[in-house]
Specification:
Blueprint: H1 4-17, H2 20-27, H3 37-46, H4 53-66, H5 85-91, H6 110-118, H7 124-138, H8 147-155, H9 160-186
Helix pairs in contact: 1-8, 2-4, 4-7, 4-8, 5-9
């Protein structure tokens, strides 16, 4: 039996190695439909339970949406344990954010974050898919996101701790950027 962290790590490696056809199929994977052959291979390998099948379909779809298109060299990251989802929602997947001299406006606005945090559990997957599409456009391919956090938001929808972690890391990243920006202004 795999832990969620091991499963997400392995799925990440699989997705980064897939050809564009199977990856596109996984991007279109619907939680309430039958699934694709690649998804069922993963389900068999990792032993997804019947109870969690819909959640894993959404997790795999979101991870596929986050998988960079085109060249996926060894420098490309999808899952990165040290890059919390909340921080990535703030900086858009750019560890160098904000650029020197730029405003520390988060990529995902505080208003959109608040809406996400208030989203009912049964709609959270759809909301995460929209966010993943946004991140796919802004995220540096060399910087991943902790996809285990995404999995936990969907596998344990009633646990507020996972939502609290998103908010905590988002605001920690935002405050750190504002502090750096303030210090840069003082040194000019």
């Amino acid at each position: 039996m795999f832990t969620h962290e091991e499963t997400v790590e392995s799925i990440s490696k699989k997705l980064l190695g897939l050809d564009s056809g199977p990856l596109a199929e996984l991007r279109r994977l619907e939680p309430n439909e039958a699934g694709t052959p690649m998804f069922w291979r993963m389900a068999a390998e990792y032993g997804f339970s019947d109870v969690e099948l819909g959640a894993w379909k959404q997790i795999v779809r979101i991870m596929a949406l986050l998988t960079p298109r085109g060249d996926r060299s060894n420098e490309v990251r999808l899952h990165e344990r040290t890059r919390s989802l909340g921080a990535v929602l703030c900086d858009g997947g750019d560890p160098g954010w904000p650029p020197k001299g730029a405003d520390a406006a988060p990529v995902l606005s505080e208003k959109r974050l608040a809406r996400f945090l208030a989203t009912p559990a049964d709609q959270r997957g759809e909301s995460l898919e929209r966010i993943a599409r946004m991140l796919a456009r802004s995220r540096s391919p060399k910087s991943g996101v902790n996809c285990t956090e995404i999995a936990h938001l969907l596998l344990y929808p009633d646990k507020t701790k996972h939502l609290e972690d998103v908010a905590r890391y988002y605001y920690s990243r935002l405050d750190r950027a504002a502090y750096q920006s303030k210090n840069e202004e003082g040194t000019v």
